[in-house]
Amino acid sequence: MKIIQGKDIRVEKREKLEEVIPLDMPYVLFVEPTNLCDMRCQFCPTGDKNLKKMRPNGSMSWETYCKIITDIEEFGKKLKRINFYKDGESLLNKDFCEMVKLAKKKGISESLWLKTNGLLLNPELNQRLIDSGLDMIGISVAHITKEGYKRISDVDIDYVRFKENIRDLYNRRKDCKIYIKIADTGLSQLEKDLFYNDFGNVSDYVAIEGLHGWSMSDVKDFTMMTESKTFDGIPFTQKVVCPWPFYELAINWNGSVSLCNEDWVHGTIVGDINKETLKEIWLGKRLYEMQKMMLEGRRSENKVCNNCFYLTCAPDNIDEYKSQILRKISNKFLKV
Question: Among 104, 105, 226, 281, which lies 20 to 30 A Cα-Cα from 111?
Fold first, then answer.
């Protein structure tokens, strides 16, 4: 068992953004197989039936996904990572394993990651996941008892079977790393110890993460009134400029493209891969205008970005360089 903080795998080997922006292509893509979920967690917008009504809901079609793969190939270089998740439970998409397998076959990304709640894991699916070519599988555990799952996520589970399925996945993992974490929803020390005991020997990495707010965090307290701390274990830092739109994008299940994975309400749309290529979106006016808005200190003009708790957790801070970055991205945009 290797006990870590989230930053140990998510905030490593970072480049200085002020030196590499503007990028010819994103470093990271979030590809959302579905924004449907089989859990209703109190700390997640997808778990709130009223908040879910504020966006379209569904699952990505195979045709849409294949278009994404073709668009990525157009860049001519590999992404650093594709995260096959965003707002929903990715394994609810029946084509999930084939999606990963195609990305692996095409060699379009250095790394392929999945984050799942693990409820659908079973020996047959576990083998398919490993065979698909995933490099990392993150499993988000909601609680360490059946009763806790019901209270936090409003689902009834066979907790013993749940653990057995995770052990089976771990035993099949080969070169795929297994990361198991639990959100600290007010866990007692005994519950934390039980978490390590239950999952420490069936994972490569294990962590207890803090809860974080989301975009539009003024609509609901997603931290459940717990002790305020970042989920990654890095200090809270207030920022003017959000760094994510300069090196990542999130492709929603319907092909619309958001600035980042925290945009659960689809309020930062900068394109649609059903109507344009990913390269056109990355080099396009809508993304440029959003980046410019950030750099000019006008983040409040977008309701999603205005009250974004998650920004305080961003590992990069480019506030000091906003003027020089604005000059660079403007010069590049005018030349395109």
Answer: 281
Q: Region 33-61: what's the mean pLDDT?
A: 94
Give dist(CA 262, CA 311) in Å, integer: 9
For residue 52, how many other CB atoms are within 10 A of its CB?
20
Greatest alpha-carbon span in the chain: 60
**How confident is the model over 148-172, as pLDDT tens digits?**
999 999 999 999 999 999 999 999 9
Q: CB–CB of 109/79 below 8 Å? A: yes
| Residue 129 contacts residue 122 (beta carbons within 8 Å) | no
> For residue 238, which amino acid is it?
Q
Is residue 36 a contact partner of residue 247, using CB atoms and an 8 Å limit? Answer: no
pLDDT, tens digit, 9 for 90 and up, residues 78-95: 999 999 999 999 999 999
List all residues 6 or more positions away from 8 whose beta carbon is below 8 Å from its beta carbon: 205, 233
Q: List the beta strands (DSSP E) in 164-300.
A: 177-183, 205-209, 248-251, 256-258, 271-272
d(CA 307, CA 127): 41
